Amino acid sequence: MKKRRSPFLTFSFYAFLLLIASSWYFVIGIKNASLTELFSKENLEYATKFFKGLLGVGQEEIAFLNRDSWSDAFKLTVETLQMSIMAIGFSTIVMFLTVIPAARNVADGTLTLSRRWYRWFVFGLIRVSYIFSRAIPELVWAMIVIFIFKPGILPGAIALALHNFGILGKLCAEVIEDTDSRPIRNLASAGANRAQILMYGVFPTVLPQFLTYILYRWEVIMRTTIVVGFVGAGGLGQEFKLSMSFFHYTEITLLLICYLILVIIADYISEKSRFFVK
Amino acid sequence: MSEKNIIEINQISKNYERKIALSSLSFVVEKGELIALIGPSGAGKTTLLNLLASILEADSGELLVDGKPMSQFSDQKKRAKKIGIIRQQFDLVGQLPVIHNVLAGRLADWGFFKSLFNLFIPQERQEATTALKRVGLPDKLYERTSNLSGGEQQRVALARLLMQKPEIILADEPVASLDPARADDVLDMLTKLAKEEHQTVIASLHSVDYARKYFTRLIALKNGKLFFDLPADQVTDKQLEELYQLKELS
Fold first, then answer.
1. ipTM above 0.90?
2. Is B13 helix (H, G, I), strand (E, B) or coil?
3. CA-nearest residue of chain A to B105?
4. What's a Gene Ontology MF term here (chain B) (predicted)?
5. Which of A9, A22, A138, B81 is the most exposed place for a label (fewest CB within 10 A)?
6. Between chains, do A201 and B93 touch, taking CB under 8 Å as contact?
7. How far is B54 from chain A (nearest CA, A)?
């Protein structure tokens, strides 16, 4: 038996073909772009110049072979690490304070087996704050925060925490929503009250998952410090911006190496701690 | 066996939307009886157990526990001392070590700080060890619960009931997810421990063989009505055949 195709599917298929054809026509026919131009002699020259700069070919001062710049970079790396730990710490604390009422099965009372009229109100309020917090990118948060505070690693950490609080909150609330309610009902029938249900039923099941998310976000935060650093939030990011502006290419190489080391450290720690939890 | 009636059910009815789950059911349970609820699927066994556990409320009729109506047991902590529940094997917190799942039976008596403290330094270890010994798992104290087999998990649930010490144990299909050997094992232990502690057991079962083997009284439900209520040794094969018979096509 032949399946009948939905007219919408057919339509979107032809629309897709049309879109591709017209896009290529626009790029080649109207804008006169050509693929060969991308690989022109000029571009090649710029690229070699830039990469030679990064590697320090033919330069007098090579930052990543210099002891002093290494020690400076090390200080900045520690600063960046501090900023990322502060950021994930702030957002984790606030997430823990808000995550339980933000789960749908807590709001409707199926998880804790108790209903209160104000639960849905609190649920809505927290969920809206999550959306608000993660809808605004870190960079924008950083610009706002630095407008108020002096530049440094604290405002950077606050900006990163503000953005990640919403993400962590949403992810962790969903973990709570996915917990199996059967062991929890049974705890209730063994006489456990609300706090005891949370301690014995909810936290042990959700904490390993929480930890995975927190560590993952920590790693992301560490990389994002470069972005908030651009607007003056301190750490390696700020230095990166300065080196870019002064065309100190070898310093950029050095800073990239530092980032690489940071991410490797974060990777190692999260792997170990997840193994430990299991 | 004492003369005291621990459960009295009088003309109890329960409907879901238009479907009748239980219609004017009445029986009396004496203290220390081991009762098996049998009957085809949808006969109302689980509904009856949920009414007894006060998870559901009856539409009409009277349900007395220890001579008092169910509404007097609305406090979870009080109810836990009266009624304990064991279900299929999904009722333990898998991520916790065995000892915490056993000690959860004491939560009704513990306050907030003792419960919190217990998660770091297990309290009443002696009692928990004894309970686990009685169910035959003395060496699994600190094992992660989800690593245990289905039969072992049901034993842990039994050990929790030993800590909880309710007067009535409600068992909803306690062996439905176990193989025959484990099922025998768990039911044997459940009835033996209940006898030792002078507890009353009401268990819903799929298997008539287990019901006759381990329980003293069989209550059969069919379409929400009492089909028969007899001592285990007086139930005939013919009655059982009628109980599980599908409706004749007319």
1. no
2. strand
3. A190
4. ATP hydrolysis activity
5. A9
6. yes
7. 10
